[in-house]
Amino acid sequence: MQILVVNPNTTASMTATIGAAARSVASAWTEVVAVTSSMGPVSIEGYYDEALAVPGLLVEIAAGERAGAQAAIIACFDDTGLDAARAMANIPVVGICEAALSIASLIAQRFTVVTTTKRSWVPVEALVQRYGMAGRARVRAADIPVLALEDPASGAAEKLRGEIARALDEDRAEAIVLGCAGMADLAAELQREFGVPVIDGVGAAVKQAEALIALGLSTSKRGAYANPLAKPYRGALESFAPGAVAAE
Ligand code: 5HY
């Protein structure tokens, strides 16, 4: 089976971290194809970045589906463009936030998401609410820029550790969810260090995508995720007219 993993920001080095984490948990018969969006923000921090990252994400998912991917993963903890991608694509699309929260809910009553910047805090809280986890999940921000995770000398990992320690102490968290795709390579060592389950959304999404493919399940096209109606788009987004992106 082939699973497409899309990094909706435009930083290829972060895609490398994401791809390695995905391959480290994928089953032997899963081919992971990890791609970087070709347009949009170098990192996604807040609503504006998120909105402008969606067109590039949709282009990569459409291309991946045409190339034979059987499922797609959105490797950004904001589950950027998840609903639009599920409407456009005919293959299942998994967001790493939803995937991580559902895995956490299987192994802990209370858990805390530790995300990056303070402006990412509210969007992630809204997802926790949307996914029905508000009673069990807390959200914290380690106050680190997303791309600082790429720089070992930035002190980002230390700040992340500090926030995890506070989550265990103050939230009485029983598990930790890493709130950024760029943290995917830190899960195993943090789990060893803190002695509680530490969930990386990229890995969680790979296993759920594999399950959907194995079960022969895909997004329902009845209702909310029906393919978009064909209509002209104007201006800079003309080429995004429904059917045009998928047909390119
Ligand atoms: C992510 N941003 O996973 C999110 C994390 C965040 O570029 N990749 C990003 O802070 O929202």
Automatic annotation (TrEMBL):
First-level EC class: isomerase
One function term, GO molecular function aspect: amino-acid racemase activity
EC code(s) of this entry: 5.1.99.5
Pfam families to which the protein is assigned, alphabetical: Asp_Glu_race
Domain of life: Bacteria
InterPro entries: Asp/Glu/hydantoin_racemase (IPR015942), Hydantoin_racemase-like (IPR052186), Iso_Racemase_Enz_sf (IPR053714)
Recorded catalytic activity of this chain's protein: a D-5-monosubstituted hydantoin = a L-5-monosubstituted hydantoin; D-5-benzylhydantoin = L-5-benzylhydantoin; D-5-isobutylhydantoin = L-5-isobutylhydantoin
Protein name per its UniProtKB record: Hydantoin racemase
Source species of the chain: Mesorhizobium amorphae CCNWGS0123
